[in-house]
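Quick illustration, no need to memorize.
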Amino acid sequence: MIGGWTLAAALEPGFDAVRGTISALATAAVDRPGIMTAGLLVTGAAHLGTAASLRGVPLPGRALLALGGLGTAAVGLLPVDRVPTAHAVAAGVAFGALALWPAAAARRTGPAPLRPAVTGAAAAVLLGLLTWFVVEVRADGDLVGLAERAVAGAQSLAPLALVLALRPRGGDRVRG
């Protein structure tokens, strides 16, 4: 995702990443919409693969992460300039699921990264960034692109952070 929007924006003369949305980089109005589309599809697939692999994480969290992955892929397949309503629904599902999955992944016992204090804090940060983005969109704000990149970047990296935090060390294993 992050590489996709970085490359797509760099190759689009005059694109303002602070004001312009990620979705705008996957429309017919840009020279290479396939770059951002590929970034969305790869990120969606990564979320699906991560959700399937995190066996020690409670099913509700994994299900929301998978739903976020499906929504992210759908955003790539439903360009905002061609199917704006479907695009908005897919984006809403993706952003919502990806903001909430950490809270749904909480376990009272087990590894520290899955404890409610940690997963709740992660979800709170993601929800805060999502709120900022929604406020910018609704106000047609000057920072809509920046807000979107902040939330989408954090949501893209949160699963990786959990995977790294749960890595077995010296024979420890995460058990479901």
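DSSP finds six helices and no strands in the chain.
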